[in-house]
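Hello again,

I reread your note about wanting to compare the complex against the isolated chains. To keep things tidy I'm splitting this into two emails, and this first one only covers the full assembly. Below are the input lines as submitted, including protein chains and any nucleic acid or small-molecule components. They are followed by the predicted structure of everything together. The single-chain runs will come separately.
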Amino acid sequence: MTLLSILGMISSAIFSGTSLLYTTLGETIHQRSGIVNLGLEGVMLISASSGFAVTAITGNPYLGVFIAMMAGGIMNMILGFLVVTRRANQLASGLALMFFGFGLSAIIGKPYVGTRINALPRLNLPGLSSLPRLYSSLFKFDFLIILVIPAAFFVWWLLFRTRWGLGLRAVGESADTAFASGRSPFLIRYQALFLGGMLTGLGAAHLSIAYTINWTEYMTGGRGFIAVALVIFSKWHPLRAILGALLFSGAVAFQLLLQSSGVQISPFLLDTIPYILTLLVLIVWGGARRHAAPASLGRIYQGVE
Amino acid sequence: MSQNDKNMLKWNQIFQKILDSAARYLMMGFVVLFLFGIILLITGKDPIQSYKDILTSTLGSQYGFSEVIVTMTPMLITALAVALPTRIGLINIGGEGQLYMGALLATWGALTFETLPVWALVPLMGLLGIIGGALWAFIPGILKSLGLVNETIATLLLNLVAPSIVAYFVFGFWHSPMDTNKTPNFVDAAQLPTFFNSRIDLSFFIALVLLAIFWYLMKYTRWGLEMRAIGGNPQAAKRNGLPINKYWVIVLCIGGAIAGLAGAAQVSGFYGVLLVNFSRSLGYMGFLISWLSFGDPIGIFITSFVVSVIITGGNMLQLTIGIPYAVINILLALTLFVVLAKPTFLKRITI
Amino acid sequence: MKSKIFYTFLAVLMVAALLLSACGTTDEEQTTEEPVVEVSETDAPVVEEPVTEEPAAEEPATEEPATDGPCLIIGALYGGPINDAGYNQAMHDSVMAIQENIDCVEIIEAENVPEEAGATSTMENMIQQGAGMIFATAFNHQYPALTLSQQYPDVIFEHAGGWEMSGNFANFFGEPPDTWYVMGVAAGLMTETNKLGFVAAFPLGWTNTFINAYTLGAQSVNPDVETIVAFTFGWGDSAQEADATNSLINQGVDVITMHVDSPATVLSTAESRGAYSIGFQSLAAQEFAPEYWISGIGFTLGDTLTWLASNVIDDSWEPIFLRCGIADGCMAMGPFGPNVPQDVQDQVLEALAAIESGDTVVFTGPVVDQDGNIVVAEGEVLTPDLMSSVDWFVQGVTGSPQ
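Full-complex prediction:
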């Protein structure tokens, strides 16, 4: 293994892990407020397609990223309406949202399949431009990659260092208690969904506008579900999510490296490792899990009327 | 008031109720069609023509109708795989993974025992499918009963693992350079018999029998009663001496077995080959259908039928008005949204 | 409550409206810039195996008098989107060429058609819409089409890239291995690191053959060349394609090419990393790599499909196992990119001429595989029917062919 291939693995993990991390951060916020969003897959697809479409029309990738972000937030409002206002089952509503995303993204993206867009520009980090092309291009990141770690810290700060975050976590632990202490679980959950949706939208935008530079139907390939697994893996903590996302995407990069080195290990078995690891982590926590997971996760807040 | 009048009043009330619910469903249907119509109009397609095409291509011809049945068969079974554990308070979102594992084992049977006659091979594949699904559901079941991992999370995670395992076996052992993402075609003896000169196969009748058994079990046996007791209040059931941990494991395994059977039926009946990503969310669809119909067998049948009409009709739409096939998911999702939102303004309608 | 529902949906719909208003009519832009060539003797595809008939005898049905209904309804199925700038677009363009050459045909199309039995109902629906000829262009549509061909003996089925044959079912395809050899020559001359990267969908016999031909071509001008292969295990999984492309470039590869449906992701990624690229499937691929494009090959089957359709119209269609190469006009080579020096261009064109004249035959023995076994013996040539089941890589390829 050369230095390039090791650095390359890190670079690959960063590139493909970015969209995963944004989405995981979004889902962390949802789940901290007590909502499981299984519709991430659909939200991502709609964000990815609308961001790609806007970039294709206007030629401005930044506008595309913005639209993708807003689309993510708005899509989550549908879920909010169903599970918060109408108190519908969260899992079923999320899956319905997923199917909605399958369909709507196909309409939005259809005319732009195979269209060349201006990808999100990659910026030269200072000092790297003197390296040979293959090395310098390893760490030429777009602004979404550069911002992803700060975003994780921002979410951490928001959840654990602000009054709003305290309220959000209180709602996630017990909506009734939070209501009794003068907070509005409805409002907070809507806000959590909108913010989380915007982060999910950023992840999707990175996937279509910056990383693959392409739109195809079902292009997220299960990333929405992976993000749900990652949230559990990182114990509902935004900073541990960084590690989780790097581990997941690093596994993919490692798998490809092995494959093209002619090593005979099935890539599919390697693919399963992160999930099995997550399950093992859960088993090890066992009963203590309750200290990590928001207590009212998935429960419907009936409210007082 | 005479007895007769009282009876009249009672019947009137029942009649009123039926009318009410019929009106409600009609209203819901109308809302869905209206919303989807707007989307179609935005994309420049004719909604009326679209609805006409959906109906004529599904209910308007013998072939279309048979395709609706074919589409709904796996949904019936996967919905049942969710409905049964729901009765005991377990959320089995793992139908997708159990389906894949059932298909995997059934495929192993089909490729290993190629020389067996059809009357032996098909039941063997069914049995293997049941074992595959049950084993896959055993993991979350045992974790749940040991109090380690919540079954929702465990089944969801295992959904993500199962397709990779299928891919490992297909590309690792059952792959020839003539194939892309599938095994070689099964021999004829490994394929479910079909009926009525259509693609309706034996699994449809198996699904109906399973639904009937489910209905009978829940309604008339001690077993069903106990399960409902556990689902209603596990703590109380435990105090009354019901072995709820045992129930959890067994019921989840049976649910998995049913989903596994659906997987076996898909590879043996519909495909006749194992495709790496054959399911396309069938397991999740089963979850939604079971949830929408509150686990009621007749409800499962009706909901699967409506969903299948939409899906099958969407196939024709891309030929006649040229919208992407995936768009039919919007119609499906809108239907789900409206049902999930339980709109109050619809309930207030009186005739 | 009522208003709330509607506002929620309206918000979503408005976003959709915004996005879609700009793209209302894009569906209509299609058809190729490909010159409309009358099918004549020179264009007649090379027919392998039962040479039943001289194709030149057929006149294209252009002069057919316009009747009330269409003279033939053609149903075409694609496994992906028809505007993918790749395989499906190349197939779509070829099918639409029939329409250009023969006025009276009507074409119904279906994109993103599911694989295997999932495609059956689409074909049934097409036949119910009156289709008399079906083009099934996805690899995994072969068996469902074959099964249906027994149910509908009056409908002609043509499948792309398979091998099964029956009374009303036949296979057609371009013959890319020769062209891949020429691309290999270009890549071998352009690489500085002597490492070529190949992003492939599946370890499929034909894909392995392409990789082998490409490597042999590169080795013919640059013996030190190594080709590294990464599989994505999907025809259109763009995230995997980006991962694979990056991974290859990180291992020192400086020329990238691919055998997946759409070149968009692979070529865009290579371009963003500053690696050279070679296109495949459709010549539309070049737009994704304006700077580092070397060249590319694409399917141009319009005339062949027109010929097949005209045979169906005048009832002279026979099941023929049809493969046609670059000399027959079924494949075409794209222009060179701006960074390709003149002497490289000359050498590539020389290699192309040698292929077209038959001086170079790609898989002439002895061919040695990765482990040093002789897979094509001295004096023998790998035949096309064996190419579909190749499960070895030639020496100089890194990766597993299974």
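For quick reference: Chain A has twelve helices and no strands.

B.
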